[in-house]
Amino acid sequence: MASKNMTTIMALFLTFNLVFLGFTSAQPVCPLNRSDLGICVNVLGLISLTTSNVARCCSILAGLNNTPLVSVCACEAVRLNILNLLGITVNLNLRLNGLLGLCRLPVQPGFNCLL
């Protein structure tokens, strides 16, 4: 049987966990499959993004009809592309904004694409 001191410590530990976990918010997850996301990854591998070479990626992202999901999926594509181009560092938010700007899709306010 656990001592009264140990029981108190466990109760406090569980209480703090519940409080801190209650303040966290779930991050949206990109619902696109790898092949759809791969189209955007391939587009991002191009040196310059133009309206004509991002059209397929734009149509996939536009189909999400949800600003947070568009930002999350575009960011995921940028991340995958950066990881494929070892040794090349690109400002993720700049690349994300460039892609969404060409697609004429809004960026979620306050969204930050981090590696």
Commentary on this structure:
With 115 residues, this protein is mostly helical. The protein has a domain at 35-101. Helices cover 58% and strands 0% of the residues. It is built from five helices and no strands. It has helices spanning 4-22, 34-44, 55-62, 67-84, 92-102. The longest helix has 19 residues, at 4-22. The protein is elongated and about 70 Å long.
Quaternary organization: single chain
Q: How many strands appear in the DSSP assignment? A: 0
Beta-strand percentage?
under 5%
Please trace the helix and strand order, writing H or E for each element: HHHHH
Concise summary:
This protein is an all-alpha fold and 115 residues long.
Overview features:
elongated, 5 helices, Plant_LTP/defense-related, 58% helix, Bifun_inhib/LTP/seed_sf, mainly alpha, single chain, 115 residues
How are the SSEs placed, and which strands pair?
Layout: H1 4-22, H2 34-44, H3 55-62, H4 67-84, H5 92-102
Helix pairs in contact: 2-3, 2-4, 4-5
